[in-house]
């Protein structure tokens, strides 16, 4: 797979790979956060996952997502075009291509799952892990709130489906941070940023199928020794906070930053806090290697 990427900052500084979430291109990472991390003498490697943004996409129509979700709930095999392990291999291959020997890795939501897999399967390449609003894949953990799951699964049937911007506006109002609601202007800027980079309904569905067809990482994560920071909001309706707590319980000596009032997004009011926590974690981990 050909992956699109951007490098921000000096590659001689500690390099952080940022892996974005379901259906999200690299522009989903707040530019303010990128700017602040670069100013703290860090180098960011932002990636478009396969099937999204400027990266290589598939042109095969996905199967009915609702039926596949039912199969998943029944413990039956889900049809998918690739798995999260394949998406992890994309990133590993990119690092080889760029001749980057080791990195710190940040994964957001689905990206957190991929970042966890990189840390499990390529421990020699990962100096530290930051798993944000993500999960171990443990089936005992609670899933998305029903209102959110229903909206995402039925989204393609909305009357406004031809106006994709409308769908994403509604989605982020649903899963955003109750304590830090985004203004209409902020939502407009965010949605324009991700839509301009390139998003497809098919790519998002194929990524959902990859998640549903990937194995539980709970046991494997217990072998992780890389310094790990887990960040999770306690008002997350898409990936409930219990999933972040479970991740912290899996990984020995990890740190959990549980944020009151945060949902499944990056509140702009907390960008400085995010930049500080991430840079402190990365620089401390770097000294240990």
Offer a few descriptive terms.
289 residues; alpha/beta; Rossmann fold; seven-stranded mixed beta sheet
Shape: globular
Strand order within the widest beta sheet: 1-3-2-4-5-6-7
Number of helices: 11
Instruction: From the alpha carbons, calculate the radius of gyration and give it in angstroms.
Output: 18 Å
Which structural class is indicated by helix and strand composition?
alpha/beta
- Give the number of domains: 1
Strand portion: 5-15%
- The CATH superfamily name is Alpha/Beta hydrolase fold, catalytic domain
The helix fraction, in percent, is 40-55%
CATH topology: Rossmann fold
| Strand/helix succession | EEHEHHEHEHHHHHEHEH
- Which architecture does the CATH hierarchy give at level 2? 3-Layer(aba) Sandwich
The biggest sheet, with number of strands, parallel, antiparallel or mixed sense and barrel status, is: 7 strands, mixed
Q: Count the beta strands.
A: 7
Unreliable runs, pLDDT <50, ≥5 residues?
none
In whole angstroms, the N-to-C terminal distance is 31 Å
Overall pLDDT confidence: 91
Overall CATH class: Alpha Beta
Describe this structure in words.
- A seven-stranded mixed beta sheet has the order 1-3-2-4-5-6-7, sandwiched between helices.
- The protein has one domain: 3-Layer(aba) Sandwich (Rossmann fold).
- The chain has about 290 residues and is of the alpha/beta class.
- The model has no long low-confidence stretch (mean pLDDT about 90).
- Helix 10 (about 240-250) links the parallel strand 6 and strand 7.
- About 45% of the residues are buried.
- It is globular and about 50 Å long.
- The protein has helices at about 30-40, 65-75, 85-95, 110-120, 145-155, 165-175, 185-195, 200-210, 220, 240-250, 270-285; strands at about 5-10, 15-20, 45, 105-110, 125-130, 230-235, 255-260.
């Amino acid at each position: 797979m050909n992956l699109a990427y951007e490098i921000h900052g000096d590659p001689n500084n500690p390099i952080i790979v940022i892996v974005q979430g379901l259906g999200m291109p690299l522009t989903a990472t707040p530019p303010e956060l990128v700017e602040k991390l670069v100013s703290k003498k860090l180098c960011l490697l932002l990636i478009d996952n396969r099937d999204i943004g400027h990266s290589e996409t598939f042109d095969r129509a996905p199967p009915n997502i609702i039926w596949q979700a039912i199969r998943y709930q029944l413990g039956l095999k889900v049809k998918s075009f690739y798995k999260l392990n394949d998406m992890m291999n994309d990133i590993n291959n990119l690092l080889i291509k760029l001749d980057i020997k080791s990195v710190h890795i940040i994964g957001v939501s689905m990206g957190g799952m991929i970042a966890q897999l990189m840390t499990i399967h390529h421990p020699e390449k990962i100096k530290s892990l930051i798993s944000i609003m993500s999960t171990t894949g443990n089936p005992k953990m609670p899933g998305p709130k029903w209102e959110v799951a229903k909206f995402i699964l039925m989204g393609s049937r909305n009357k406004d489906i031809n106006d994709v911007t409308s769908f994403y506006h509604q989605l982020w109002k649903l899963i955003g941070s109750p304590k830090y609601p985004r203004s209409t202007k902020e939502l407009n800027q965010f949605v324009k940023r991700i839509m301009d980079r390139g998003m497809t309904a098919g790519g998002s569905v194929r990524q959902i199928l990859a998640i549903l067809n990937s194995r539980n990482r709970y046991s494997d994560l217990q072998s992780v020794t890389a310094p790990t920071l887990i960040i999770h909001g306690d008002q997350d309706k898409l990936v409930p906070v219990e999933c972040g707590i479970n991740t912290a319980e899996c990984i020995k000596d990890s740190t959990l930053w549980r944020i009151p009032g945060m949902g499944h997004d990056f509140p702009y009011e907390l960008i400085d806090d995010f930049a500080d926590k991430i840079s402190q974690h990365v620089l401390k981990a770097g000294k240990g290697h």
